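Before a colleague's protein record goes any further, I have to sign it off. What it holds is a sequence and that sequence's fold in token form. My question to you is simply how this chain folds and whether the tokens agree. Thanks in advance; the entry in question is below:
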Amino acid sequence: MAAPSLHSHSYTNALIHEKSPYLLQHAHNPVNWFAWNDETFARAVREDKPIFLSIGYATCHWCHVMERESFENTDIADYLNEHYIAVKVDREERPDIDAIYMRVCQAMTGHGGWPLTIFMNPSKQPFFAGTYFPPENYHNRPGFPHIIQQIFHAWKHEREKIEESCAAILEHFTASSNQTAAALPEYILPLAFQRYEQSFDPQFGGFGSQPKFPSPQNLLFLLRYYKRTGEPSALAMVERTLRAMRKGGIFDHIGYGFHRYSTDREWLLPHFEKMLYDQAMLAVAFLETHQATDGKDSLFAQVAEEIFTYVLRDMTSPEGGFYSAEDADSEGHEGKFYVWSTQELVRVLGDEDAALFAAAYNVREDGNFHDEATGAVSGENIPHLRLALHDFAESHAIDEYELRARLSVMRERLFNHRETRIHPLKDDKILADWNGLMIAAFAIGGRVLDNALYTQAAERSLSFVLETMSLENNGTKRLLHRYRAGEAAIPAFLDDYAFLAHGALELYQTTFNIQHLKTAQMLADEMIRLFYDTSEGGFHFSAADNEALLMQTKEGYDGAIPSGNSIAASVLARLGKLTSNRAYQDCSLRTIERFAVQIQHHPTGFAQMLMAHDFLTGATQEIIIAGRTNDSEIHAMLRLLAEQYAPHSLMVFNHSPQELKHCIEQTEYQISRNNQATAYICENFTCQEPIMSSATLKAVLQNGSSVLL
């Protein structure tokens, strides 16, 4: 995204000097926006003005709506400029700021979301919070002009009450941050499973009614629960959900990739933005389901490949980093880029092919969805499947292979036509944490699907982040959170270290390149040094050398993506068992115990933390393959392991004992026997007899001689 021109707009404010695409979107509002910095808050003190803080992100639909309705309104802007210091923050650039004020909003109003609207004093202490406000009073919802007038009146005439409110809010969060550590009870995993069962939608998949979010970490937990217990309904819930999502409008059937979430129960009408983290987490869910179902249905692998196709084509920078998101809106309308009329289909495909496509993808003359806000039928269509293509072919007496071939050609023609439309904004900033998730996904994809292209994509991204988004600091790399337009900036947060360590560890599990294991250990060590709370356990979101804010946050709850604490606990549990590092395992355990009380109250909100708990406290395995890199038997053994769904196992290829033993001590003795390919399966500090052929290893895996294989 090019920076807006200084000369082609009526208004230009201080955001013109920022790198964030979201901030640049507001650089020509008549509101005199300022960036979050010391100079801005010093101005507020000098002018004795309250702060109006607005937090959002570049692909946020309702952020765009509030901008059009209020921030481009000159009357509203004039009032804000005279009475407030208006501050804009990109929540993806500064998740530390967003985390604090979102907690405030949720505590004060009972809900949260973006745009996040905060009023606070120049000391950054909040006293009023909300989300989207309309430009005028609407039913029981006050209009934004009314809000800003009433708050400023209170600022001028009831300052003492405002300061008392600020102090009370701060005291509340200081008190609520004290949590008692506890051990999780044995029944916690069955309890979480029971809660998922209770909220599962058996007709359309997913959990709850509407809106429905992908929440892949819930599916990953259920897959592990199925593996641990053999409970068939756990796997069935995952399969039902993933199939329904792939058929629904939440999936982009023309260009691939998943939209943000579904506004309805049926996965039909999405909010159309596409987020990198959703692609990463969903790709892993489809890949693991492919493994868990023994590859019996090619759909799950196919969808993972479709996601990767989208990310490599549209979301990968020339340097190898992954972009953050694509907007929902184009030409001022949400979803306009993605929807189709029947007339347009005929123009692109011709009558016969358009009729077949319309039948398969439920395209109707009057449109196939109702507008979320008005309920009106638009005449536009979101391509989606009601029947799987196999069932559609059977019901229409069409050969399935022929149907798929014809639809594939049509999809490509429609995609090429859609490329001529005005595209939504691409948020092309590169974030270290989201890249970590995508690195992990591509690494797993390379391993499971035996595709070197995916592995290379993961390695390029990891190399880019480590080399370009970091500063050397006493022989270690201090990560930076954001890169855009040639600038890496903002000291990294917990999520950056945890997610990137997760990606590096998955790359080691795919490539067995010792450097990736060393990278994972280096990031884990730095994560502990910078963020770990040695007195109470768990990880702070910000490091001591980050900007000092109103409070330190320590999050364990999974939102749209898993929390930094839960990924940190998972990485440390796995690294600890792989390298026999008790300090890692103790750190993981104390982190889980720090959130144990909250987990027991709401286990389904802590799926990733429960996966860490499961790995740390349950039976696990290390499977070591030893031998020469160019041995065909070695490749056959590694391929067998890659095909297995073994979430409680860690894989090692000991091709360099003298080097590897410094990272994984036990490999000094688990070496090739008689210069042959040799496999060791170890559990609870005990190893089975060495396995000397891929055929024997396959038999062991198929017979399930261990409960974890």
